[in-house]
């Protein structure tokens, strides 16, 4: 009597990849590269004209009308107290308002947007400062460090 070999159920490659990898959008602030989880990103737009908001915090560069919705444009350099030089901000990363408790329409003014990349979980190191909710981790890739920022943590930073 021959028995058929028993095989363990093997998860689909996609299921295990999702657990081991995350997709991030890399962008430039000054001379440094930063990234955010792509799940927070709604779209990327060119910097247009911004309307100044009186008495706004110094990290708010203004507001813009984006498809009929007033969107606050935040300068992450000022928000996160980064000394990144005087790079010219040309692009705005618009975040998915559903990811924020107050359903806020927010965008970050960045110097340049690079690419969406997959990052293996083992490439992510814990942030050096445990009390800083704005930093998710540090990614070592191609001999460089990329700082992974949480838009939700950064929104509560000040």
UniProtKB/TrEMBL annotation:
Domain of life: Archaea
Signal peptide annotation: none
SUPFAM superfamilies: CheW-like
GO biological process: chemotaxis; signal transduction
UniProt name for this protein: Chemotaxis protein CheW
The CheW-like domain, residue ranges: 21-158
InterPro entries membership: CheW, CheW-like_dom_sf, CheW-lke_dom
GO cellular component: cytosol
């Amino acid at each position: 009597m021959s028995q058929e070999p028993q095989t363990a159920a093997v998860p689909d490659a996609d299921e295990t990849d999702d657990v081991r990898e995350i997709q991030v959008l890399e962008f430039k602030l000054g001379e440094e590269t930063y990234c955010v989880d792509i799940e927070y990103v709604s779209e990327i737009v060119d910097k247009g004209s911004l309307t100044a908001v009186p008495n706004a915090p110094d990290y708010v560069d203004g507001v813009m009308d984006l498809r009929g919705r007033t969107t606050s444009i935040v300068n992450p350099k000022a928000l996160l107290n980064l000394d990144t030089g005087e790079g010219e901000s040309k692009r705005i990363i618009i975040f998915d308002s559903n990811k924020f408790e107050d359903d806020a329409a927010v965008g970050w003014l960045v110097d340049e947007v690079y690419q969406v990349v997959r990052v293996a979980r083992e490439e992510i190191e814990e942030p050096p400062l445990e009390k800083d909710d704005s930093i998710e981790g540090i990614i070592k890739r191609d001999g460089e460090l990329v700082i992974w920022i949480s838009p939700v943590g950064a929104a509560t930073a000040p």
